[in-house]
Design brief:
alpha/beta, globular
Length: 242
């Protein structure tokens, strides 16, 4: 049965990568979350997509140059005028504490392709172990060197390379770097590659899948998961298909 992962939480309706978006995704029936992590100047793992805070908050600056205390001053929900209160940038630890109250799965994307964030892998592993979440975590990244480093440090935690372009026999590549799945950018017509990857025992979780026809195609082929901005809509399509 194909799982539904909420892309940056329920980002179609709520501020992306915030606890509000994650909680609303769970309420909508999502099986999992997809979130992004960066690292502050004081070594805190925070949940935000961009290297800068400019797009998603009312502040400016690079995360690597700001402390957690400084980040907390800004509102990650400032574009959502209907929200009654400030929505802070969460830490990964806050997400993990909340995950103790449910069974949701979490795909963590390491955003260390632009800035290396020395020690990020070790810090993420330490948090996963602290909250005993190894079986509910998938770690992905466009930085495949980082993924290999992560796998060598913690081979018991699932990894999956993010792929923005199609590559030849991606399941062979995934196996070569110790990954148990692939997270490809969704393109129509790639279903055959997905099917071959699944047949070879690898998880396939395409991103970002929002169109009903595409969601139906991936459900029909029993794709491992889809990563979508609108988990509620995907849940509805899934229920109608059953």
């Amino acid at each position: 049965m194909t799982q539904i992962f909420a892309h940056r939480g329920y980002s179609a309706l709520y501020p992306e990568n915030t606890m509000l978006a994650f909680k609303e995704a769970e309420k909508a029936g999502a099986d999992g979350l997809e979130l992004d992590v960066q690292m502050t100047i004081d070594g805190e793992i925070v949940v935000i997509h961009d290297e800068k805070i400019d797009r998603t908050t009312n502040g400016t600056g690079l995360i690597k140059n700001l402390s957690l205390k400084e980040l907390r001053q800004y509102n990650a929900g400032y574009k959502f005028k209907n929200l009654p209160e400030k929505t802070p940038i969460p830490t990964l630890e806050e997400v993990f504490k909340w995950m103790q109250t449910n069974q949701i799965v979490c795909n963590i994307e390491l955003k260390n392709g632009v800035y290396r964030y020395e020690g990020m892998e070790e810090k993420v592993i330490a948090l996963i172990e602290k909250y005993q979440l190894a079986k509910r975590i998938i770690v992905s990244s466009f930085n495949h060197y980082s993924l290999v480093h992560f796998y060598r440090l913690a081979p018991h935690i699932e990894t999956a390379p993010l792929l923005s372009e199609s590559i030849y026999m991606p399941w062979i590549y995934a196996k070569a770097i110790g990954a148990k799945g692939i997270h490809p950018k969704y393109y129509r017509g790639m279903e055959d590659i997905y099917a071959q990857s699944l047949a070879n025992g690898f998880a396939v979780r395409p991103y970002t899948v929002n169109k009903e026809a595409a969601i139906k195609r991936l459900f029909a082929m029993n794709c491992t998961a889809i990563i979508t901005d609108d988990p509620k809509a995907a849940v509805k399509i899934k229920q109608m298909a059953q």
